[in-house]
Design a protein that fits this description.
Elements: H1 3-22, H2 27-34, H3 38-45, H4 53-62, H5 69-84, E1 85-87, H6 88-91, H7 97-108, E2 112-117, H8 128-142, H9 148-158, E3 168-174, H10 185-198, E4 204-209, E5 223-226, E6 230-234, E7 238-242, H11 245-259, H12 265-284
Parallel strand pairs: 2-3, 3-4
Antiparallel strand pairs: 1-7, 2-5, 5-6, 6-7
């Protein structure tokens, strides 16, 4: 739970406590009115439990203040935003390993992962050396502890899920990611070879969005969809964790529209092979 989230939850609890006191009720009396356990009133007003909209409606009516229902719902919406927006500065304060452990748990809990990557290879498909360069560069960029080896080990452990017969993976990668070199040529060559060999594997659908392809929807940023319960969007400063039905439907539509223009199978291998050949030619010149 982030500090921002907890601070906002405590502020909401303080407002609940203030309203209860203004109504001349103690916690026991309010609990009896609402037919709640007294401990629930205590947890809510001390910021130790996140209320539902129904809890807040009941609280407003229980203290005889239905006029504050909209205010309380607004505070809850702000709280939800704090939970959705996850600062990289806080998530990576101790290095990359902790966030990679979260990724492992999310993958373990998911049967179908769909993803779009615009400028780099998806973490689930990265070689150890490619991942190592990415982690080291990001640690330098953010000024965080370089826990590179632990992060690489955890990322490789996450890749064991690719061989789980209960899981499926459908990924779109923009052709630009095959040419963007955030690593030495030999590391990139090994990474392209791995992508080439992943095409056509069981339970893995890898599509390449070619340069010049006509798109119903452009690819503005990377995102991952976990079953139909969560979308994770990565920006430079934070991650967005989206769980609302409207958000899920929107990102599913974006993924479907982009998938229409992707190359699969032999055409995908051709695009990867072309990038590999260009890399070899560049390295030889």
């Amino acid at each position: 739970m982030t500090t921002d989230f907890q601070t906002a939850r405590e502020a909401l609890g303080a407002r609940l406590r203030e309203l209860r006191a203004e109504a001349g009720l103690d916690g026991k009396a309010l609990a009896e009115r609402l037919d709640w356990q007294r401990s629930k009133v205590s947890r809510l007003q001390n910021g130790r439990q996140t209320p539902t909209r129904e809890d807040l409606t009941a609280w407003a009516h229980g203290i005889g203040r239905p006029d504050v229902e909209a205010e309380l719902h607004g505070l809850l919406s702000a709280l939800d935003m704090k939970q959705r927006h996850r600062s990289w500065r806080r998530q990576l304060a101790g290095g990359h390993r902790g966030r990679q452990e979260i990724a492992v748990r999310q993958t373990d809990a998911t049967r179908l992962i769909r993803g779009l990557e615009v400028s780099r290879v998806p973490g689930l498909f990265q070689t150890p050396e490619y991942a190592r360069v990415i982690f080291e560069a990001n640690a330098e960029f953010r000024g965080i502890p370089p826990t590179t080896e632990a992060a690489v080990e955890t990322r490789m452990r996450r890749q064991e899920s690719l061989y789980d017969p209960e899981k499926s993976f459908r990924f779109l990668v923009c052709e630009a990611a095959l040419y963007h070199r955030a690593c030495p040529a030999d590391v990139m060559a090994e990474q392209l070879d791995r992508l080439y060999n992943l095409v056509g594997q069981r339970r893995i659908e890898l599509g390449i969005l070619p340069f010049g392809a006509e798109l119903r929807r452009t690819a503005p940023h990377a995102f991952w969809i976990y079953d139909r319960r969560l979308v994770i969007v990565e920006t430079i400063s934070e991650e967005l964790w989206l769980t609302g039905d409207d958000d899920l439907a929107l990102y599913e539509r974006a993924w479907d529209w982009l998938a229409e223009s992707a190359a699969y199978g032999a055409p995908a291998r051709h695009l990867i092979g072309r990038a590999r050949a260009a890399l070899t030619a560049l390295d030889a010149s």
